[in-house]
Amino acid sequence: MSAIQRYARTEPWDDGVATARKSHAATTALTTILQTYGRTLRLSEAGQSVALVERDRIASGVTGRTTAKITSLHGLRYDYLADRFGLDVARLYAEANEAAIDDIESTVDEYDVDCGFERMPAYTYVDSADEVDDVRAEAQTASHLDLPASVVDASSIPFEGESAVRFDDRAVFHLRAYLFELADRFASGSESYLFERTTVTDVDEGTPCTVSTDRGSIQADDVVVATHFPVVDKGVYFARMKPKRSYILAVRVAKNPPDGMYYRRGDPTFSVRPVPEVDRLVLVGGQGHRTGDGGSTTERYRRLERQARSEFDVEDVKRYDRQLREMIVEGRAEPGFIVSHVEPLEKAPEMYERFDEREEGVTKVLLKP
Ligand SMILES: Cc1cc2nc3c(=O)[nH]c(=O)nc-3n(C[C@H](O)[C@H](O)[C@H](O)COP(=O)(O)OP(=O)(O)OC[C@H]3O[C@@H](n4cnc5c(N)ncnc54)[C@H](O)[C@@H]3O)c2cc1C
Predict the structure, then answer these.
(1) Topology of domain 11-66+175-238, per CATH?
(2) What is the ipTM of this complex?
(3) Ligand 1 mean position to 101 CA, how many Å?
């Protein structure tokens, strides 16, 4: 699989109008986007004509940058939902999230998607004795909703924590691998269209509905708009939205990566998940803030790294600039010109010496093992 894929399905635009029985303009919430892709694929396989429209590239939004935990344990949520909206609403939330996990797993199985899907427990832990009662209440309400919840004490938490709620059998996976596989299959269907770099500008309800884009229009019986930020915003929801930002680092730990995914409630939050298919690799996340209020990005990453080092024996931190990487992959940036020499590894001592002596023209040496 190539790192970045293009789906240039331009045929139906010849007369400026494409027709589709279902039309999706991206999606919402990680589990929903994944379900949407799975369902979209199934619809097209069932003979429906489906168009999926994406302003940028598949998985270029926040979905391509998450920790990719698939869990129905989200902080301490159930007791709050039950208290505020009643048990029926809390149950709906639980059932929707449980269904999403199962749906993704069955899609992985059905299409044999190689994406490191693995079941493991999820924990929300607290590090203050004052919050232990909240943990107990959460586990109790969750159990009442038939969720696989239990309380874990400090001795079983691999971090500085007082207590945790544990949900069994949650999952992690490689989200981009999953999406690209589904997108590949979807785009190869004769009646399905995946339009990247195409922006939806309007949706007119009608029979059929018309989806206007900057490249033409699509007519469809049904339209699902799921762009995270509303783009067809009749309820003026944008005014109530609060963009937030948070950060993830991949770190290699010296030993014993955690055997489950963890989330610490509080300020700052701390999120941890192992990457089972890569030796001792762990994703750590946190340092969230309102967009624009967070100060220096570098400082945020530094703080996250310090947090990771305080919890793990970190061997190294994997860092790269995704934007730069994608520019290189797409050929828009060519940093190769700064390499003055490409030499075999045996020549390392000589080349180090020449570089050290600042020999004319020896500016950047690449050693090939
Ligand atoms: C650091 C971090 C870690 C996270 N970890 C997890 C986790 O472990 N588990 C979890 O469940 N959630 C996690 N989340 C939350 C999760 O990533 C998001 O809720 C989810 O990815 C949102 O998906 P989305 O499809 O709504 O948005 P996006 O992925 O942003 O997709 C929206 C898409 O709509 C497209 N679009 C926008 N406007 C238009 C238009 N006019 N026309 C066409 N296309 C358009 C965009 O280009 C974009 O691709 C995390 C979030 C962050 C920031």
Answers:
(1) FAD/NAD(P)-binding domain (3.50.50)
(2) 0.96
(3) 17
